[in-house]
Design brief:
The chain has 240 residues and is of the alpha/beta class. The protein has a domain at 1-83 and 204-240: 3-Layer(aba) Sandwich (Rossmann fold), CATH 3.40.50.300. It has helices at residues 40-47, 76-81, 99-105, 113-126, 128-132, 143-155, 173-188, 200-206, 224-229, 231-237; strands at residues 2-11, 14-24, 29-34, 54-60, 69-70, 84-87, 161-165, 192-197, 209-214, 217-223. The strands form two sheets. It has a six-stranded mixed beta sheet with strand order 6-7-8-3-9-10, with helices on both faces. The chain has a four-stranded antiparallel beta sheet with strand order 2-1-4-5, covered by helices on one side. Strand 9 and strand 10 form a beta hairpin. The protein is globular. The chain binds adenosine-5'-triphosphate and magnesium ion (MG). Residues 40-41, 89, 165-166 line the site of magnesium ion.
């Protein structure tokens, strides 16, 4: 569905992503794991059109048998229109708006009111806590609830490809479990997922395929189960 070829991201003199290639097959969960500063966010942001100093290729075929497009260089709003949604690192919700207003913002590019209503209901089914708090201001939600809101909002554009940047960051273990269970449900409902995570154990446990990023390079790529059993991965990312 999406193929990243020889991606480079530079910030002035910093070469954050140094020739990364990643394949994301339709219907799968692909995860990108790696330490702080490995270049995970830079890579995912480049795909979303948010990294100015990016070069390489991002090839995307929205529908099976459809036309393949090169996305790199397109503005971010084009990605949303093509069915790609990014849930950025650090819960960028709008604190002054209610939960429901935040969710409706995620559907800003749509005009199918029935579809929006159905997806809103879908979000509340996925995250019952958000339904209970739909009139509450985003800024008054707990950290975990804000993270759920951020994920739910990125679903409101009804993406074919959902990219999540560290959805488990700062969550208590129980909520981490809940958010990963939800990711599996989102995938089972037919959405392809690119998951960036520092929580390698949780990410590899739900993903089909994984890439390990080290200082801007993909040093390993394998089915997630293989990475879970790989001694090097275990030592470096899974606490031995
Ligand atoms: N806007 C920027 N300007 C300059 N350098 C940047 C910028 N964004 C990221 N970097 C640098 O690029 C490198 C990769 O950062 P990136 O955020 O992609 O890493 P990451 O793998 O997502 O890390 P983390 O797990 O901490 O989120 C880091 O050295 C970082 O300091
Ligand atoms: Mg990051």
């Amino acid at each position: 569905m999406l193929t990243i070829e020889d991606l480079h991201v530079r910030y002035g003199g910093i070469h954050a992503v140094q020739g990364v290639s990643i394949a994301i097959p339709r219907g799968r969960i692909v995860t990108l794991i790696g330490a702080n500063g490995a270049g995970k966010s830079s890579a995912i942001r480049a795909v979303a059109g948010l990294a100015r100093g990016a070069s390489g290729k991002v090839l995307y075929r929205r529908k099976e048998g459809g036309r393949e497009e090169q996305l790199l260089g397109m503005p971010p709003e084009n990605m949303v229109r093509r069915g790609i949604s990014l849930c950025p690192e650090g819960r960028r919700i709008l604190p002054q708006l209610t939960v429901e207003e935040n969710l409706r913002l995620g559907a800003y590019a749509r005009d199918d009111d029935d579809g929006i209503a159905a997806d809103l209901e879908g979000c509340y089914e996925l995250f019952p806590r958000l339904r209970e708090r739909k009139w509450q201001k985003g800024g008054t939600l707990s950290g975990g609830e804000q993270q759920m809101l951020a994920v739910a909002r990125s679903l409101m554009s009804s993406p074919d490809l959902l990219m999540l940047d560290e959805p488990s960051l700062g969550l208590a273990p129980l909520l981490v479990k809940e958010i990963f269970r939800t990711i599996v449900r989102i995938n089972a409902a037919g959405r392809t997922i690119l998951l960036v995570e520092q929580n390698a154990l949780a990410a590899l446990s739900v993903a089909h395929y994984g890439y390990v990023l080290e200082v801007g390079r993909a040093v390993m790529a394998a089915p997630a189960k293989e990475l879970l059993n790989n001694p090097r991965v275990r030592a470096a990312y899974l606490g031995g």
